[in-house]
């Protein structure tokens, strides 16, 4: 028989017979009215699980990972405040229902059924996913990526402390709030979870405020793989800086008492805590999962015998709060009511077009108060001796540094974070003096963990900050790319534009470093970024462009809530000369602070009618060299610097090309590089005279062969001449 039906029948039979599982007495702490409210939340969570399976069988629902066995999370919700931001495990319907009961005007039954049906009326995702979440209830919606929400929970908790000293304009979390994240015992083993828990401990040990409650819902199994008995307690109870609490999630009263104690500790001491909550998993992992196919029937039946709803009815009866007959009536009436509402919900409209689905990929713009920036005196005081150097041209790295100074002066909610960005000033000195001038609360040296760096940024954005995290090298992004792909970029999509996590992610990258690197430090692939919907990818090549684009990137994050990836070509950081040693032709002046380069603004250099060279980054630098060599051969060219990799400024690029043949110079690999998209664009726009020069499908070597697989000045000239027949 279907285990769902067995659990349901067992509940009806055992409550009628007063046949309850053995358990402890009633732990003080909950009033009678509170206990009844929490039981109602547990019952509604169970009824919704049952209905989701009915809807799926009828082709009217699309997701059945349920919360049965985890209803004790209702007690955790009651121990917190509804303005405490909560990043939830996907089995936490009872938490969301109980929290909704703390806020007037909520109809969680209908809202969750709309989500099951993927209706466009779903107030959380607008029909894009069956997902827990609510802006009103301070629950950002989550995807099902295992443990990926823990790093941003650490960031949100850190941002609570930062906002006390430096309240941002768009602050949304209360001064005395805490952050909470929940996850399963199997998820606790994921490297993302381990990194986040380690980051929380590391931060707390240093005395930095971090009001965060980790809640591990331990049902003893991850899909079909068991968690060793005692593993969670043994591995989590002695972590430095992390206070450990445990509770029986089957016992509503005891779970509330422990959760309240843990939450109060976090709120009072502003330190992280770990709540280890015992649960059971009923029905298997999801709708298609049959637990008895990989577990002994006796074990499955033992969990079913410990149904938390049976324990709650037992305790309510023992406390004299509710007679089992009334508890059973409430259960059956709730099932009937859920089925009734579901019959209406399934008639509500769905998303039907690509435009409907994609409408929330790019978050909405928000109003930002105008700012006049710092006074002349304050700016001069902060810049110090650097101010006098602005009268002379400077290399790329120096100008980015000054741009960061001005952005932090003009926008106090701007934060820098990353490994070595503070006291050291970054691997290449790009963030020098910022730590000294703006302090450790705004220029933050993090631990060596890219997932934690990006998670910190996402969480900080939840409280109104504009984070500018740094990843030291492009290859290191792969350690944390899910924080971009699975979290930052998807949040507006899954929340129907109600939530966002704007940031400007700075990454030192690309090739052509002569004396340092190999493929870990000279990585020439942006493919992992290019296919993420909604993000902006910038790649400047000159100092002035970098300044103007960085200002626009910051504006896009602050005002339009965008996620921007700002790729800085390492080899061009110190570049001074273009054609001859000492010519200083690649250095530029620092642009006035009110100037920017927009997303549709490309760089155009030269009016030659024989050829257009379409490129970016290091390719722009090399193409400008090749442009001079080509002119000496009688080939007059125009070099077009894309500047923005995504979104492509398609119309501007086509207009700049005109009727010229096009040579695409792409320093990324031939497979998956920008050239593929550019060739498709040219073909679609009717330009049929083009060629591409790319890097080889290879990693980059260390030593003299560092550029052997990359485009060069010489082969740009050769490719151009071949294209135009010279």
Q: Classify the helix fraction into a percent range.
A: 40-55%
Average of the residue pLDDT scores? 95
Unreliable stretches:
none
The side-by-side strand order for the widest beta sheet comes to 9-8-10-11-13-12-17
Molecular structure report:
With 726 residues, the chain is of the alpha/beta class. It has 26 helices and 19 strands. The strands form four sheets. A seven-stranded mixed beta sheet has the order 9-8-10-11-13-12-17. It has a five-stranded parallel beta sheet with strand order 1-2-3-7-6, with helices on both faces. A five-stranded mixed beta sheet has the order 14-16-15-18-19, sandwiched between helices. α2 (32-57) runs parallel beside α5 (108-116). It is elongated, with a radius of gyration of 29 Å. The model has no long low-confidence stretch (mean pLDDT 95).
List keywords for this structure.
726 residues; 19 strands
What's the gist of this structure?
β15, α23 and β16 (637-641) form a beta-alpha-beta unit. It is built from 26 helices and 19 strands. Helices cover 40% and strands 13% of the residues.
């Amino acid at each position: 028989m279907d285990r769902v039906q067995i659990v349901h029948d067992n509940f009806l039979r055992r409550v009628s017979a007063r046949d309850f599982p053995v358990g402890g007495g009633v732990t003080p702490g909950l009033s009678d009215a509170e206990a009844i409210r929490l039981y109602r939340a547990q019952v509604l969570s169970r009824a919704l699980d049952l209905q989701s399976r009915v809807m799926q069988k009828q082709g009217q629902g699309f997701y059945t990972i349920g919360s049965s066995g985890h209803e004790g999370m209702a007690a955790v919700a009651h121990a917190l405040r509804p303005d405490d931001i909560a990043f939830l495990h996907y089995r936490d319907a009872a938490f969301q229902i109980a929290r909704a009961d703390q806020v007037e005007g909520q109809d969680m039954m209908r809202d969750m059924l709309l989500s099951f049906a993927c209706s466009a009326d779903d107030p959380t995702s607008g029909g894009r996913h069956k997902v827990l979440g609510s802006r009103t209830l301070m629950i950002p919606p989550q995807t099902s990526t295992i443990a990926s929400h823990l790093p941003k929970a650490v960031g949100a908790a850190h941002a609570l402390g930062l906002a006390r000293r430096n309240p941002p304009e768009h602050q949304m979390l209360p001064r005395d709030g805490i952050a909470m994240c929940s996850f399963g015992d199997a998820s606790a083993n994921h490297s993302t979870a381990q990194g986040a828990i380690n980051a929380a401990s590391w931060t707390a040990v240093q005395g930095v405020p971090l009001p965060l409650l980790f809640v591990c819902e331990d049902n003893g199994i991850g899909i079909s793989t068991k968690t060793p008995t005692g593993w969670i307690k043994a591995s989590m109870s002695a972590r430095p800086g992390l206070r450990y609490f445990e509770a029986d999630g089957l016992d509503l009263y005891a779970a509330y008492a422990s959760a309240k104690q843990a939450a109060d500790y976090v709120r009072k001491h502003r330190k992280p805590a770990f709540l280890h909550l015992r649960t059971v998993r009923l029905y298997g992992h999801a709708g298609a999962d049959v637990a008895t196919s990989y577990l002994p029937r006796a074990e499955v039946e033992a969990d079913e015998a410990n149904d938390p709803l049976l324990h709650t009815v037992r305790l309510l009866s023992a406390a004299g709060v509710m007679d089992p007959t009334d508890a059973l009536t409430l259960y059956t009436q709730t099932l009937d009511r859920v089925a009734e509402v579901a019959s209406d919900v399934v008639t509500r409209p769905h998303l039907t077009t690509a435009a409907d689905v994609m409408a929330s990929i790019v978050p909405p713009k928000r109003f930002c108060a105008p700012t006049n920036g710092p006074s002349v005196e304050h700016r001069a005081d902060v810049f110090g001796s650097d101010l006098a150097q602005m009268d002379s041209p400077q290399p790329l790295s120096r100008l980015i540094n000054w741009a960061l100074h001005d952005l932090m002066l003009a926008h106090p909610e701007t934060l820098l974070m990353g490994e070595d960005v503070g006291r050291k000033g970054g691997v290449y000195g790009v963030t020098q003096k910022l730590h000294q001038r703006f302090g450790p609360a705004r220029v933050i040296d993090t631990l060596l963990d890219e997932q934690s760096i990006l998670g910190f940024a996402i969480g900080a954005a939840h409280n109104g900050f504009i984070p500018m995290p740094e990843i030291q090298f492009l290859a290191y992004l792969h350690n944390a790319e899910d924080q971009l792909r699975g979290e930052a970029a998807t949040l507006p999509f899954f929340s129907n534009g109600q939530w966002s996590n704007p940031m400007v992610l700075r990454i030192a990258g690309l090739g052509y470093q002569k004396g340092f690197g190999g493929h870990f430090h000279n990585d020439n692939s942006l493919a992992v970024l290019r296919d993420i919907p909604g993000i902006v990818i910038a790649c400047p090549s000159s100092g002035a462009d970098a300044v103007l684009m960085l200002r626009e990137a910051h504006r896009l994050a602050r005002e339009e809530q965008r996620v921007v990836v700002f790729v800085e070509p390492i080899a061009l950081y110190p570049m001074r000369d273009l054609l001859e040693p000492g010519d200083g032709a690649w250095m530029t002046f620092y642009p006035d602070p009110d100037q920017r380069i927009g997303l549709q603004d490309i760089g155009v250099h030269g009016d030659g009618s024989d050829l257009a060279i379409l490129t970016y980054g290091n390719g722009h630098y090399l193409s400008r060299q090749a442009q001079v060599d080509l002119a000496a051969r009688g080939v007059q060219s125009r070099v077009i610097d894309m500047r923005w990799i995504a979104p492509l400024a398609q119309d501007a690029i086509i207009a700049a090309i005109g009727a010229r043949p096009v040579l695409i110079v792409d320093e990324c690999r031939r497979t998956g590089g920008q050239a593929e998209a550019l060739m498709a664009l040219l073909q679609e726009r009717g330009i049929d005279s083009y060629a591409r020069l790319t890097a080889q499908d290879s990693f980059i070597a260390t030593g003299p062969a560092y550029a052997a697989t990359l485009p060069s000045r010489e082969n740009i000239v050769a490719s151009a001449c071949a294209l135009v027949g010279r």
